[in-house]
Amino acid sequence: MAKKASAKTKPATIQQPVTFKKGGFYQDLGGDLWFCTNAKQKKVGDDNVVMMQRTEDGQPVGEATEELVGSFNKQLSAAELKEYRAVCQRERDAQAETGSKAAQTTAKPKTKKVKTATEQPKKMSALDAAAKVIGESAEAMATKEMIDAMSAKGHWTSPGGQTPHATLYAWILREINVKGADARFAKTDRGRFGLNAAK
Prior knowledge:
Layout: E1 25-28, E2 33-44, E3 47-56, E4 59-60, E5 65-68, E6 72-75, H1 78-107, H2 126-137, E7 141-142, H3 143-152, H4 164-179, E8 185-189, E9 192-195
Antiparallel strand pairs: 1-2, 1-6, 2-3, 3-4, 3-5, 7-9, 8-9
Helix pairs in contact: 2-3, 3-4
């Protein structure tokens, strides 16, 4: 399936053209990760396209598709790709933990659990921590401010990536795009997010 723009509709402009390399991972303007299956560019209508394959946490899935070159903003470095995968894994772990706790609640009556001194508190996902710090500040924040606040309050720390704020930005945009009105976040200004008042 090819994504084509009409002669009247031009793809989003990017600061510097992305030079595609076969086997490289690229992030689009929506924050999704893609894997380049063929670096050769070809024409479809008035727009250059490159063969891409959509991926989740860096693993190729689905059918190869054509994505407009103009919708990509950068190629991920090895460190950024590692961070992207780490965040994906933490999000999956957090979702699985939430799902298993919900299943246990319906299966068994609640019993009060006494915390021991050695017991560690449950780790928050990056998105949960971001929602928490925005709620605590009661005003819109940039992702860099969120990362700093999350780390200072001990909610979440980056696993060592070079640009955790860029990864968080992509994940917040992804939640907004996927969940729509049910997303926890809302974009309030360029580069700034608040909590979704409709939720």
